[in-house]
Amino acid sequence: MLTFHDHRTQNRRSTSELAGGELIAPLECPERVDMIADRIREVGLGDIRGATMHGLEPIAAVHDPAYIDFIENAWADWRAAGYTGEAIATVWPTRRTRSDFVPQNIDGKLGYYALAAETAIEAGTWEAARASVDIALTALDHVQTTGEAAFGLCRPPGHHAAFDQYGGYCFFNNAAIAAQAAREAGASRVAILDVDYHHGNGTQQIFYDRDDVLFVSLHCDPVHEFPHYLGRPDERGAGAGEGYNRNHALPPGTDYTTWVAELEAAMSGIDDYDPDLVIVSLGVDTFEGDPIGSFKLVSDDFTDYGRRLAGMKRPTLFLMEGGYAVAEIGINAVNVLAGFDR
Ligand code: Q9C
Ligand code: ZN
């Protein structure tokens, strides 16, 4: 399988993640992609090719143009306000305040557009987030022109990013942008299968009232886990999208036997939908050694489910999402891809 990547992703070098009341070194670090790329070369998965620029139009087909402007200018606005640390939201529109206007002040803007405080914006964020989208769209181009599967080694991840919100380490929703681009290029139905440990709240929201993009997610029940306020099984879509959003919420500590039974159910639903393209939001934070996940998958389990995904026999685009056990992230992510190719 071919991999697509772009070194501009390494421009995101945040030094601060708000966690447990402290600023820690961010879990979503540049070394994550180095480990995956090293493993791809080690096992000979296939070539790693560069990404081509796709511009802002495909991003604006999914995200609010004012939000895109905000991500572009947030760091400069923050610096202009005289702040020396990284840009972190500290105040939010909440129940019984207003959210029908965007404040002009940078602190107000940050809270308006942030869905969580752990994710800081810094000098390289805009360029890296755009590169991540270009990777996804270049990998999509390959799937569409050849029918072969492809891997977009995206970073930063995307599935928490909504129409006009960033957070959970995500800025632009790579999978949603690729799904929309595939629709515009002629695919009738696209399925997004999100296997990251966390619920893909952003992807769900973007397609919630649509039946042309099916969103299916396996994740830790949000009652117990980030993103906390979305991802329950009774969220099934709205209007024309009713029935086209499927949340498989699993308890903390879920092991592979339970997880893979749920994956089989999810894949059977995708098969019934008969999509022209399957986009896999590939988070490997389901690994037993993940520092923020609680699931119990071992490295061989990733190979096993990669093989099962190939059984769907659909054009497939893999896009990297989460996974924070840096020492094993390459083994686990590449096991899925190698299992698929087997
Ligand atoms: N102190 C993705 O996997 N909360 N994002 C972490 C630990 C944020 C995960 C709490 C988790 C975001 C793409
Ligand atoms: Zn995750």
From TrEMBL:
GO terms for molecular function: histone deacetylase activity; hydrolase activity; metal ion binding. It comes from the Bacteria. CDD domains: HDAC_classII_APAH. The keyword ATP-binding does not apply. Residues 28-336 form the Histone deacetylase domain. Keywords: Hydrolase, Metal-binding, Zinc. One of its GO terms (biological process) is epigenetic regulation of gene expression. The keyword Endoplasmic reticulum does not apply. Its cofactor is Zn(2+). Belongs to the histone deacetylase family. This is Histone deacetylase superfamily protein. It comes from Salinisphaera hydrothermalis (strain C41B8).
